[in-house]
Design brief:
The chain is of the alpha+beta class. It has eight helices and 15 strands. Bound molecules: zinc ion (ZN).
Length: 307
């Protein structure tokens, strides 16, 4: 068999991926095009109530222009089969009126929604949730403290010169996070954070720091959290993780040491598990519990046991 770390992998699609929306960047920069899109008869808005998407009957609840309040935060998501799509942050009173006429409608936590929605719809939730969350937390310029205004149909905020501001532009952030399995022959390393549910184990993860490559972040995190030294790092897959706006970058790392030394601020347990153990866990019959298939940690474990 070829050396594991010279192989390439074909993982299953990861959660929050597969949106069919064309992000239509050329329209974002054209206020007239966005205004026309809002008047398009096929235009629809996906409402979020405190970052929870509205769902009905197992699908996203898209509303039309007549149902949206005039003062709500709105971002342009793009075009779906040529029809404009927006996300909107609803005041609570509007959510009540929208759901009161539709007993099946409810605002649902985005994690829960992603477990039940078709993949392409969960991907739209990730897109809208991350953007709305960013706008709601960036009302003031990080450079000078003046108020900012929404710009580029939701893909920027501009510091308000007419209110004494410096005019700086700010863009929605995406925070890279590495998530990885250290591999030692037929074993992989999993750990549990103190906040995890009972019996739950997952891949180790951490934010990429400024001035660091993905490979360097993988090696640093494994060493900091578990005391493991690693050599080669192989990219496996990625996924957006809209809590609030991470990009999870999944990798395998070649262990060159195996003695575990825990950082107890980060992990309460880390252990090496055999392929047979992880395989049993993924089929629901193992010694611990794993993240669901919508999470890239699951994808990493599944790709490893199938490799
Ligand atoms: Zn400013």
């Amino acid at each position: 068999m070829a050396d594991f770390f010279t192989r390439s992998f074909t993982p299953a699609a990861t959660g929050f991926c597969g949106s069919r929306i064309d992000r239509a960047d050329h329209m974002r920069r054209d206020p007239q095009a966005v205004a026309a899109a809002r008047m398009h008869p096929g235009a629809r808005w996906l409402p979020f109530d405190t970052l929870r998407p509205l769902l009905a009957d197992g699908a996203l609840l898209w509303i039309d222009r007549a149902q949206i309040p005039a003062d709500a935060l709105e971002v342009f998501l793009g075009l779906e089969d040529g029809a404009p799509r927006f996300a909107i942050a609803l005041p609570a009173r509007v959510t009540e009126s929208l759901t009161s006429g539709n007993p099946a409608a409810e605002a649902q936590d985005a994690r829960g929604a992603a477990m039940t929605l078709p993949a392409d719809q969960a991907a739209i939730v990730a897109h809208g949730r991350s953007l709305i969350d960013w706008h709601q937390r960036h009302g003031f310029c990080a450079n000078c403290g003046a108020p900012t205004n929404i710009a580029k149909a939701g893909y920027a905020r501009a510091c308000a010169r007419d209110r004494g501001g410096c005019g700086a532009e700010h863009f929605p952030r995406t925070d890279p996070v590495v998530i990885m399995l250290a591999i030692d022959g037929d074993k992989c390393l999993l750990g549990r954070q103190p906040s995890f549910p009972a019996r739950f184990m997952s891949a180790l993860a951490g934010f990429v720091e400024p001035g660091e490559s993905i490979e360097e972040a993988v090696r640093r995190e494994l060493h900091e959290e578990a005391g493991i030294r690693t050599a080669r790092v192989t990219y496996v897959a990625s996924q957006p993780w809209p809590f609030p706006s991470s990009l999870m970058i999944g990798a395998f790392a070649e262990a060159v040491t195996t003695d575990i030394r825990l950082d107890e601020d980060e992990l309460e347990e880390a252990r090496w598990f055999t392929r047979a153990e992880v395989e049993a866990v993924l089929s629901g019959d193992g010694p611990f519990l794993t993240p669901p298939p919508m999470a890239i940690a699951w994808t990493l474990m599944k790709t490893w046991v199938d490799a």
